[in-house]
Amino acid sequence: MLTFIRKRSVASLISLVGLVILVFFLSRLTGDPTDLYLPIDATDEMRAQFREIYGLNDPLIVQFGHYVGDLVQLDFGESIRKARPAIDVVLEAFVWTLQLAVITMALVTAAAIVVGSLAAFRVGGFFDRVSGVLSLVAASAPDFWIAIVAIVVFAVGLGWLPTSGTGTPWHWILPIAVLFIRPFGLIVQVVRGSMINALSSAYVKTARAKGIKTRKIIFVHALRNAMLPIITVIGDQAASLLNGAVVIETIFGFPGVGKLMIDSILQRDFTVVLASIMVTALAIFVMNLLIDLAYAALDPRIRH
Amino acid sequence: MADHLLEVRNLSVEFHTAGGVVKAVNDVSWHVDRRETLAILGESGSGKSVSTAAILDLIDMPPGRITSGEIRFDGRDLLKLGAAERRDINGRRIAMIFQDPLSHLNPVYNVGWQIVETMTAHGQSRAKAQAEALRLVTRVGIPNPAEALRKYPHEFSGGQRQRLMIAMALAMKPDVIIADEPTTALDVTVQAEVLALLKELQGETGMGVVIITHDLGVVAEIADRVVVMNAGEIVESGTTRDVYHNPRHPYTRKLIGAAPGKGEMHAPLSTAEPVLKVRNVMKTYGTFKALDGVGLDLMAGETLAVVGESGSGKSTLARILLRLDEADAGEALWKGRDLFRMSPVELFVLRRDLQMVFQDPTQSLNPRMTVFQLISEAWVIHPEILPKAQWRRRVADLLAQVGLRPEHANRYPHQFSGGQRQRIAIARALALEPELIICDEAVSALDVSVQAQVIDLLNRLRREMGIAFIFIAHDLPVVRDFADHVMVMRKGRVVEYGTVRQVFEAPRDPYTQALLAAGLDPDPDVQAARRAERLSVRA
Q1: Chain A contact for B376, CB < 8 A?
Q2: Within an 8 Å CB–CB cutoff, is residue B277 touching chain A?
Q3: Domain B276-528 sits in which CATH superfamily?
Q4: CA distance B444 to B381
Q5: What is the tally of helices (H) and strands (E) in chain A?
Q6: For A124-269, where are the alpha helices, taking DSSP H only?
């Protein structure tokens, strides 16, 4: 187990290094932050001073050397925009995104498993056909459009919910509901397929011959066997939420890491961009590790 | 009419499929009483499992439909009961043991959980169920029972898994146990043990046993009465001895006639120079010695049977001889040249001479290729054999040779029966005009009557084309009918080697003797005599 985690960590570290290099240089291509932060009538002297403070005068490779040097001491640099350590800015936003992702995925998982399993139980039945159409629509719906329509209807039109921001539990409802739709549609279909397989398996026949109740056959005997592909997709979908649901966070003015990233890129706040990427990469790494552990927990054959 | 323990009366079941309505069983009636064992004998597709599936409410409706009949148990018609009442009977009053326990046990729960579940589902307390599970697992002869309960199905051997399945079925002390091909996937010695265990347990509890099988030997060993099924109907029924000695229906006669192990034994051809000389082959996987100093001689046009139980190394030997896997040491001289040291180019040329036919034609034939593509693929790879213009004709010839029709060339494997698919696999092997064909359990998955036909085909090929065979098998009667020489393997070593007559009539090694003794003869009298002998040895 420990060797497995160690191997995984090394592999992930290598890709993280590649990512940092790539993002560091690519983000510099967007231009010089000096032009954005100083007033148009700033003197050349002021500009030079600004560049000096943020180390923008050095050749790129030297800047990169400084950056990496600081990084190994866990110093992610200063945010130009916020004049605070970049990592603080990122972690603050990340906590928002994490909450949003965890709540959304928990709801998606629970709902998709129930709906998908019931659809698989009577293939071609009424429930299966209804959920098939709905999940297909959900999986292919453009979420930015739904987000805007939802704001128009529920916030502007009916006035039931706030349009954007955070503060009360009411603020969470629309972003979660919109983020819920697509993964839900996708995972229902995966659950259905996987459960059809599991329910037609020989051990389910054994369970029926033993006189086990149908509900237990579905949710105990078949489901645990069907979980592996389901978990894979859940992980995949969760990763895209952790990455910051950029569009949805922006539409709802939700202060998550996705919105932070897009703002920082537009403002050339390079340290924040880099720190965001590293934090989310780490989160995704941890999540993948959890998924592997879940595999092993669910299927004894993987443990050996 | 006296009430039987369990009685199926005039049962008809049909399935609605894309190809139309299929009558799975038609007007089937049988019964079983306490302390009695009934065998339902039939080949694949005969509908032998359908009536028991109906008993346990395992037929999915749709696509299945029970069109007539009743199932009497306890003075009630099971088919008239509601789902909850059926569920209450399943596992408690009537229990089932399936073929292939690996897929019929849930892979993600430990066996203790699965055995306990049978009891808790029928209202027993968990503590009591756990104690009983331990007793059951001990009773069916699993070593370290307490630890075994915490293990998962994949951690047991095939025979142990079947014992666990039996323990699970016995948990509620049912009145009837239905066993569907319970020993089909097991080695002969293990099969004998499992059948003996069932018999013993029947003696202890007085339950009625229904055993579904395609194997006359199993019937002879365990059944009091037998019903013979063909194409969804019962063609004959009676006591086991009666049906074996005085079969009235032509199908029964054909089935009994097809049982292998009664023909004339081959006498080896000559003492010419062997075409294949294998010496001292070693192969280990990790710490497991798969092959430990194996050697053999194969004469041109001769058949060598390699016999052994699972884990004996017989399939590893086949893979190594074909260089599908590499030997750790040893040599294999094919006409004087060492197979193990050939370059890839030499090996490529040699592949023409050495072909293989696998156990499961469903898996070894690509389902998306037509028969023509499957057979002619060999000539795509070895274009020097045959100009393309003649492919069609040659494929037709080959199909005729294996007893299929030329127009079959445009069909896909799934449109054929198991026996026909194996013929296609043989035709494919013949396409390269090989001198040696290695058959790895090539007839094991086939029905007895089909098996006989495939063996006839192989015999003819041997006579007419002089092809040598290495025939890997666990089924001794088939080997007896087909082989010239027999090599018995156990745990990677050759324990006995001789002509078929020597090995079958005067086996020297105790393991060979045990193998032969464990084999089941289709004649119930012979089996009864063997059983008596076994008991006297034990006493």
Answers
A1: no
A2: no
A3: P-loop containing nucleotide triphosphate hydrolases (3.40.50.300)
A4: 29
A5: 15, 0
A6: 126-140, 143-150, 170-199, 202-210, 214-216, 223-242, 246-251, 257-266
CA B244, CA B282: separation in Å to the nearest integer?
46
pLDDT of residue A304: 63
The partner residue sitting opposite A210, judged by closest CB among B108, B117, B152, is B117
* Residue range A92-303 in CATH 1.10.3720.10: yes
- In tens, the pLDDT along B431-442 reads 988 999 999 888
For residue A72, CA distances in Å to A25, A69, A77, A279, A285 come to 18, 6, 11, 15, 19
Q: Helix or strand or coil: residue B290?
A: strand
ipTM of the complex: 0.78
Q: Does A169 touch chain B (CB under 8 A)?
A: no
Q: Are the C-beta atoms of residues B37 and B97 closer than 8 Å to each other?
A: no
**Residue that has been written with the tokens 């054959």 in this structure:** A301
CB contact under 8 A, B117 and A212: yes
pLDDT digits (tens, 9 = 90+) for B105-146: 999 999 999 999 999 999 989 999 999 999 999 988 888 899
Taking a contact as any Cβ pair under 8 Å apart, which residues of chain B between 151 and 170 contact chain A? 152, 154, 168
List the structure tokens of B330: 């040893």
What residues of chain A lie within 8 A of the CB of B117, using their CB? 210, 212
What ranges do the domains of chain A cover? Answer: 12-72, 92-303
Residue B93 in contact with partner chain A when CB distance is under 8 A: no
Assigned token pair, B508? 């020297």
Residues of A in contact with B56 (CB under 8 A): 208-209
Query: Strand ranges (DSSP E) for B112-175?
Result: none
The number of beta carbons lying within 10 Å of the beta carbon of residue A235 is 17
pLDDT, residue B539, reads: 57
Size of interface A-B (CB pairs under 8 A): 71
Interface of A with B in 213-252 (CB under 8 A): 213, 216, 221, 224-225
Per-residue model confidence as pLDDT tens digits over A70-116 = 888 877 777 777 778 888 888 888 988 998 899 999 999 999 999 99
**Is 90 exceeded by the pLDDT of residue B478?**
no
| List of chain B residues whose C-beta atoms are within 8 Å of the C-beta of residue A224 | 108-109
Q: Which of B60, B92, B106, B165 is the mutation pick for testing A, counting most A CBs within 10 A?
A: B106
Query: pTM for this one?
Result: 0.80
A200-245 pLDDT, tens digit per residue, is 899 999 999 999 999 999 999 999 999 989 999 999 888 888 876 7
**8-state DSSP, B284:** E
CA distance B242 to B524: 10
Taking a C-beta distance cutoff of 8 angstroms, is the pair A119, A132 a contact? yes
Decide: residue A254, CB within 10 A, 0-12 exposed, 13-18 middle, 19+ buried. Answer: buried
Taking an 8 Å cut-off on Cβ atoms, the answer to whether B152 and A300 are in contact is yes
Q: How far apart are CA B476 and CA B522, in angstroms?
A: 13
- CATH fourth-level superfamily of B34-58+89-258: P-loop containing nucleotide triphosphate hydrolases (3.40.50.300)
Q: What is the secondary structure of B295-325 as a DSSP string?
A: EEEE-TT-EEEEE--TTSSHHHHHHHHTTSS
Question: CA-based diameter of chain B, in Å?
Answer: 76
- Dump pLDDT digits (tens) for B162-216: 889 999 999 998 999 999 988 877 788 888 888 988 898 899 999 999 999 988 8
- Domain map (residue ranges) of chain B: 34-58+89-258, 276-528
pLDDT digits (tens, 9 = 90+) for A144-157: 888 888 888 888 88
Q: Rounded to the nearest 5 degrees, what angle is found at the Cα of A10, between the Cα atoms of A6 and A15?
A: 145
CB-based contact (8 Å) between A207 and chain B? yes
Quick check: A300 and B108 CB within 8 A? yes
Confidence of residue B271 (pLDDT cuts 50, 70, 90): low
